[in-house]
Design brief:
Blueprint (H helix, E strand, L loop, with lengths): L4 E5 L3 E3 L8 E8 L3 H14 L5 E7 L8 E3 L9 H10 L5 E8 L6 H19 L2 E5 L1 E8 L4 H8 L4 E8 L4 E8 L3 H11 L5 E3 L1
Helix pairs in contact: 2-3, 4-5
Length: 203
């Protein structure tokens, strides 16, 4: 069943755990809605930390979006992007990109060491961020006669539905609602019952 809510970040956040054998790992997390926004955030970090050797990153967009993406940015395969992505997924976050910048400290860490270091920086940035819950809504349009206005409007109190527009015609009232995705079918069925089949529903 598709998600009808998800968690994301309110504003960008960052963190820098202690150095690992001289290497600095700086984590930055951003709320994003599109791949272009995610890549723009990666670019902004690259510009800010232009002296760094590596900027590993991963993003996970909205629940209905294509698969997440990640990049090791020159580090050994699997040591960077995937561990960052796991930190995002492990916190069940969507609409997020995390960039971890590494300043090389002169000592090689090995793949295992890199995985731990990149994971720690990504996790620290995400844990420093304030989260918010986003409700996924779908548009539903209801039309009903003035005589059915009372039962139709009472119905809205039973569901997570926001009135986006309300118009009056000679035949009655037309409502445009933003309905929580998981409640669309139930609201439509209840509306038909409340208006004894006289109301019209469109999505």
């Amino acid at each position: 069943m598709p998600r009808d809510s998800y968690q994301t970040l309110v504003v960008p956040a960052g963190a820098e755990p202690p150095k690992v054998k001289g290497s600095r790992f700086i984590g930055d997390a951003f709320p994003v809605a599109t791949a272009d926004e995610a890549l723009a955030a990666v670019g902004a970090v690259r510009q800010r930390e232009h002296a760094a050797r590596h900027h590993g990153w991963a993003y996970r967009l909205l629940p209905d979006a294509p698969s997440p993406r990640s990049s090791d940015d020159g580090e050994p395969s699997g040591s960077t992007g995937v561990p960052i992505l796991r930190e995002i997924e492990g916190r069940e976050l969507f609409g997020v990109v995390v960039v971890v910048t590494r300043y090389y400290g002169g000592t090689k860490l090995g793949v295992g060491g890199l995985v731990r270091a990149y994971s720690a920086a990504a996790g620290a940035a995400l844990d420093a961020a304030t989260r918010r819950t986003v409700v996924v809504r779908e548009t539903v349009r209801l039309a009903f006669a003035f005589a059915d206005a009372s039962p139709a409007m009472r119905l809205l109190d039973q569901f997570d539905a926001e009135v986006e527009a309300q118009d009056y015609t000679t035949q009655g009232t037309e409502l445009q609602l933003a309905v929580r995705r998981g409640e669309v079918d139930a609201l439509q069925a209840a509306f038909v019952e409340a208006t004894a089949g006289r109301g019209r529903v469109a999505t």
